[in-house]
Specification:
Elements lengths: L2 H18 L24 E7 L7 E7 L7 E6 L11 E4 L1 E6 L9 E9 L7 E7 L8 E4 L9 E6 L6 H15 L5 E5 L9 H11 L2 H4 L1 E5 L5 E3 L7 E3 L3 H4 L15 E5 L2 E5 L6 H14 L4 E5 L14 H14 L3 E4 L5 E5 L15 E2 L2 E4 L20 E6 L4 E8 L2 E8 L4 E8 L6 E5 L24 H8 L4 E9 L4 E9 L2 E7 L8
Parallel strand pairs: 9-10, 10-11, 15-16, 16-17, 17-20
Antiparallel strand pairs: 1-2, 2-6, 3-4, 3-7, 5-6, 7-8, 9-22, 12-13, 14-15, 18-20, 18-21, 19-25, 22-23, 23-24, 24-25, 26-27, 27-28
Helix pairs in contact: 2-3, 6-7
Length: 517
Amino acid sequence: MSAKLKIGMFFFGLLVVGKTVGQEPRTYKAPEFDVEWRKPTNHPDRIVLSYGEDPSTTASVTWRTTSEIDTAYAEIAIATAAPKFWRNAKTIKAVTTTFDAIEINEAEILANYHSVWFTDLKSDTTYAYRVGDGKRWSEWIQFKTAPKESKDKFSFLYVGDTQNFILELWSRLIRESYKKAPDAKFIVHAGDLVNNAHNEQQWQEWFDAGGWIHSSIGAFPIPGNHEYRNLSPEASERSLSVQWKHQFTLPENGPEGLEETAYYMDYGNMRIIGLNSNVDHEKQAEWVDHILSKTDSDWVIVTFHHPLFSASEGRDNKEWRELMKPIFDQYGVDLVLQGHDHSYARGRVSPKENVLDGVNMRDKTGTVYVVSVSGGKMYGLRKNAWEGYDAERDRAAENTQLFQVITIEDNKLSFESYTAVGALYDAFDLIKRADLPNEFVERDTEAIVERRFSNTIPYQDPLPEGAEESLLSKYPGFEITGVHFVNDTNFIGYKVRLERGEDREEISLDVNGKFLD
């Protein structure tokens, strides 16, 4: 090795050491947004597409403007390669509602929302639409209606909690999902789309992160617990996000009083049901029992926010599980898609009938349950997996942003979970068999190794040398469950959370890891 190369490597080594040893952790600089950024203009924004109960004939579009635009329209035509396809367009006057949230904390805005239902559409047909006030129009946006009573192949996307770091981190996830499944027909959003229900900035982040994806791939959202919050400090009860019913136009076929937060859609040979796991559990149990008893769809998928089998520690939803699982078992629900736990878990329950028909019992299954997270906030997994849940967990992940592509073709359902950089993380198939439990095909050999906090980029900030030992000796029996380095005008140092069962301690340390009184 030459002397020059040796000297260069020596100084490079000093540079690396100088940047890592004894240095404060790198602190995240969250973006700041000007208030003007989230305000509406006279031009349409926040355009979002959804489908009706029958997506082969109905779809909806919703958008926002200033309150000055009190009359708005949508135009729709069958799309062709000829640029003047618009000659065959139909103009529909929108329903306009005023969103006056000036006095609501974190909303503090006045806007008009406009919505249109497109009805009597032709099945399996590509349409183009635009929205505006007659002078100011959006671009022409295309979507395709569902086939009528078809068992043809189709795919859709499913994402868990967006919630935090929406524009910074969820944007890459949702865009990667589109790259992976550009022909996806709709997107299931399993709750907690934002962190603070009424916060206009966070909703603006959600719309900006998805951009034109929201306007061209149908949204199938259900509310999470973070879509509920008190309207003011004096309010005694939490309220659904004041934006929700203004900015989403969804089927109103759910239980009375829960319209557009609990509903269903029949796409091809699948019925998908969205539930609102925040409120009115008994009412929804009766409703879902009724609509499951009436469906003749080959595939039944249910989505809601709070998992029946929690992925993370200390988040059991026993009452919800004991209410809903017997119904899902009775009607043979195929797949349940959930959020809330900021980690990943996939498992299943036993089929209700142990039929000896030559298929190994391990390859038969009842309902498959999935919990997933798409945003940047992460929790740890439940330490004993799904022990005590009467269910078996097959695959799990920590500290990983994920999206899922679900494909149905006739009697086969394929499930694939991908990381935010497009790596296959989990996969399985379900094969529908007449009057028998589903055949389960595990495909984990196709996926990357399981991810945990221990083998990924640290989520928590690292403590200074010796600080962990000092903490645990002072608090015997506790474990460190959170470390956050703070560097602002009020405090520079570490905020540490320790837990032992139900006990919790919040400790402040200085930059050297010493206790602060």
